[in-house]
């Protein structure tokens, strides 16, 4: 809140340029054998539109996305959002919990999704938006005796609640109001307006909170039968939040 900020307020053009320069650059790396480069490139373009138009105005977190094909190396300075077959492939290729430079790394498991009948583009969108809202997987909101993980797509993660950008289906996401401590806080609680009250789920959704009271510990809640997506996969955000950063591994993958 210093003089520089006030000065830049009078020159909106340079303010915009400065804001763009500060956005994290996120490389969307296709490392999967089940997704064509062209498909991931198209998804990347739709996700850039989703971030710019829908997500950044609500969460104040933007990004500059860059598609990286199967044969191209991973840009070292960028955050990585890797599209992989499954967690075995992630391990084999050396994509662990943070990038080689210790920066945020997200993983979407396209083959696991296809096997379970899910749309990989919804998962890639889910991972991207959660990475933007909480890059270090360490943010939470306390409501009474419960501390809710800042995972912005989990409560409304099911494919049917997503929406199309062009022909690409992307994930719905909750708004800051979803974390409100009072049940009658003003909505909307998710971008698409499906959720009726703060801190609640819709079908296929998921949430986790840390109980501070007598039953202290991380609790999981699913809206219906636990799905394959609800189970924490090795290296996923859910699993990393549980094991804690002391167990995280630096990626060895260069390409
Ligand atoms: Zn999630």
Share of helical residues: 25-40%
Which small molecules are bound?
A: zinc ion
Please state the structural category: alpha/beta
From the N-terminal CA to the C-terminal CA, the straight-line distance is 40 Å
Can you describe this structure in just a few lines?
The protein is an alpha/beta fold and 255 residues long. The chain has seven helices and ten strands.
Overview of the molecule:
This protein is of the alpha/beta class. It has one domain. It is built from seven helices and ten strands. It has helices at about 5-10, 10-20, 35-60, 85-95, 110-115, 120-135, 235-245, and strands at about 25-30, 65-70, 80-85, 105-110, 140-145, 145-150, 165, 170, 205-210, 215-220. Helix 3 packs parallel to helix 6 (about 120-135) and helix 5 (about 110-115) packs across helix 6 (about 120-135). The protein is globular and about 50 Å long. Mean pLDDT is about 90; it is low at about 1-10. Bound molecules: zinc ion. Zinc ion binds near residues 151 and 237.
